[in-house]
Each structure stands twice: as structure tokens, then as C-alpha cells.
Structure to design on (354 residues):
């Protein structure tokens, strides 16, 4: 999630735990800082852009690391703040909750986080909430502002913070239900279209009203956009090539294997300016994917691995896309101009040699 949301969540958690002891302002500030602490891994050096991409939200986001870190950070706070010296366990618990809730809401996004490292090394990315979601953030931000404006602790403030935490948590749970519904609807639509999907993944949009559902086949993938108001019989499927032949000889290549692992198989390869580019299909909209990496040079049918480098990385939203989204939110069928249903799937295949 975005930094403002992480700060607000940490501040709300700390306020409910320590507001009475430390005062609402100090508790909120302390929790906000703790709530952003796991993201300091962005300052850890990475060998290349692919490592920077796949290993962000790594061990600093593990709840097991948070269990170990909470007593150390908590003890430092107890010894440095007089008001906390008689509340050691409460402080430790508050620190753990501020850190772990950061990881939990990150795991709800499609990017995910290695929340169970080292027991489970793969990132957990549910994808039921967009990286910025005002419906989740605003209740927390409201009570945090209230806490900063309050000089003294009160039952009214306590009830307000508790309510905001309950409402935001219930909203998270509701997004999982919406996601399951989108997945089930998409499964029926794909089956009706004769698509034998290897896997299906429903991903939240910025306002959780239009879901983008990806279906994978061996040499192609399909995008489906669903709103709650759709007539599923009129659903429009957009099909695109994945060009597996371009990376066939790159099996075992370190950068490719990392991207394949991190994307959970939701990737495509393309030839751009004589370079083989691998895109994570989960983040961005076709054809503008946020995470794209050139990993090989391609010349006369020969692919040669190179040091990976970003290729693109911009989320372009045109006026046509905004018009399309507005129409789709109303449950009306509309063709996305930058992703027409007649996307060519019979493009000439390039068989690379290693």
C-alpha cells in the first residue's frame, strides 16, 4: 500500500494500544513511524533492477522478523520514554502490531509481500485491493487527524479509533468476497468461450468496481473486465500472445527465472528494439505494464542474455481509457480502444537460438 495508508494504519493501531498511556498525539506519531518502518528495505542495495523488483517487501515484511524485532524496539522505547516503563508487554505488542499490520495489508495487494519468510519464501499477493484505496484509507486517516488534534485521551476518541479499525478491516474482508465473485463469474465466461484456462486471477481496480481478470493459456493470455452491473452474456474477452518462443532458450537464465517466479507465471515476452522484454501482466493495463525488463538481445534468431534493465514502467491512462472506464462502471459494454478484441494472435513466431 502507499506510504500515507501505512502511516495512518500504524498510527491508528498505536493510538488504540498506547493512546491512554502515552497520550494520543505521541502514540499516533510513534505508530505512524513504526508503520512505515518495514519499507526501509528500499534503501537496501540490489544487484540489478530485477532483484530490486522481486526482493522488495522481503524479510523486513515477515511477521516472524517482526516477532523478533518487537521486543528489541519495544525495550528501546520503554527505556527511553518514562511514561512507558510500567507497560513493557503492551509496548511490545503495539510495536509488533504496527509492523505486522503493514505486512498484512501489503499482502492484500497484487504486488504482495513475503510475509511468511523464511518458512514460506514466496510472496503472498492476494490482489483484492488496489495499492491506493481511499475507501480503506480515509476512515483511518480521519481518526489519526483527530488523535493529532486531541490533547487528552478520551473514551470518545478510543471508540472512534476502534470503529475505524473495525470498518477498514471489514472492508478488506469484503474485497476478498468481491474478488471470489469476480473469479467465479470469469470462470463461467471463459468456459463459455471455449477457453481452457491454466489459471485465473482477478485483480482489483483503483475503486474496486471494475475487476481485471487474467486467464492464462500456454501461448496466450486473456483479459476480462467485470463490473457488478454487467450482463455476463455480453462480456468482452481480449486475447493477446505471450510469445513463449522468445524465452524458450532463456530457461535457467537468472533474471528470467526470478521474473517468472515473482509473477507466478503471469508474464509475457515481447521483442522491442531487438531486445527480449518480459512484462509482469498483473500490474498495469495492456499494453502499458508497469514492470517490464529487457533481459536479452535478439539478433538473427539468436538470443543473448544481457544485464537486465527496466523497459517502460509508466502507467499511461488516455482519455479514451477514462471514457471506457466510465462506461464500464455503468455496466454497459464498451470496447477498450488500446486493447481491441481482435488483437492479432497469429503474429509470426520467432524461434530464438541460444
Amino acid at each position: 500500500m502507499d506510504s500515507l495508508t501505512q502511516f495512518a494504519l500504524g498510527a491508528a493501531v498505536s493510538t488504540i494500544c498506547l493512546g491512554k498511556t502515552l497520550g494520543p498525539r505521541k502514540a499516533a506519531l510513534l505508530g505512524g513511524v513504526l508503520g512505515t518502518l518495514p519499507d526501509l528495505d528500499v534503501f537496501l542495495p540490489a544487484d540489478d533492477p530485477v532483484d530490486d523488483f522481486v526482493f522488495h517487501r522481503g524479510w523486513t515484511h515477515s511477521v516472524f522478523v517482526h516477532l523478533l524485532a518487537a521486543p528489541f524496539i519495544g525495550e528501546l522505547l520503554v527505556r527511553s520514554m518514562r511514561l512507558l516503563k510500567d507497560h513493557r508487554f503492551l509496548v511490545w505488542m503495539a510495536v509488533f502490531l504496527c509492523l505486522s499490520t503493514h505486512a498484512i495489508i501489503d499482502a492484500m495487494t497484487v504486488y504482495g509481500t513475503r510475509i511468511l519468510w523464511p518458512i514460506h519464501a514466496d510472496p503472498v499477493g492476494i490482489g483484492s485491493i488496489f495499492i491506493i484505496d481511499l475507501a480503506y484509507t480515509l476512515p483511518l486517516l480521519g481518526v489519526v487527524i483527530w488523535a493529532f488534534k486531541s490533547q487528552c485521551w478520551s473514551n470518545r476518541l478510543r471508540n472512534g479509533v476502534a470503529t475505524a479499525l473495525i470498518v477498514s478491516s471489514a472492508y478488506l474482508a469484503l474485497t476478498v468476497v468481491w474478488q471470489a465473485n469476480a473469479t467465479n463469474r470469469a470462470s463461467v465466461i471463459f468456459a463459455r468461450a471455449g477457453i481452457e484456462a491454466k489459471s485465473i486471477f482477478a485483480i482489483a481496480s483503483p475503486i474496486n468496481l471494475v475487476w481485471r481478470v487474467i486467464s492464462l493459456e500456454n501461448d496466450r493470455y486473456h483479459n476480462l473486465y467485470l463490473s457488478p452491473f454487467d450482463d455476463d452474456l455480453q462480456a468482452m474477452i481480449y486475447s493477446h500472445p505471450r510469445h513463449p518462443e522468445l524465452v524458450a532458450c532463456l530457461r535457467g537464465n537468472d533474471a528470467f527465472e526470478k521474473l517468472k517466479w515473482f509473477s507466478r507465471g503471469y508474464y509475457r515476452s515481447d521483442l522491442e528494439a531487438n531486445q527480449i522484454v518480459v512484462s509482469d501482466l498483473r500490474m498495469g493495463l495492456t499494453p502499458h505494464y508497469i514492470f517490464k525488463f529487457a533481459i536479452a538481445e535478439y539478433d538473427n534468431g539468436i538470443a543473448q542474455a544481457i544485464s537486465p534493465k527496466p523497459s517502460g514502467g509508466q502507467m499511461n491512462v488516455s482519455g479514451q481509457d477514462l471514457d471506457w472506464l466510465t462506461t464500464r462502471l455503468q455496466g454497459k459494454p464498451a470496447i477498450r480502444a488500446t486493447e481491441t478484441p481482435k488483437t492479432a494472435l497469429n503474429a509470426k513466431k520467432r524461434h530464438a537460438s541460444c
Observations:
- Residues 342-347 have pLDDT under 50 and may be disordered.
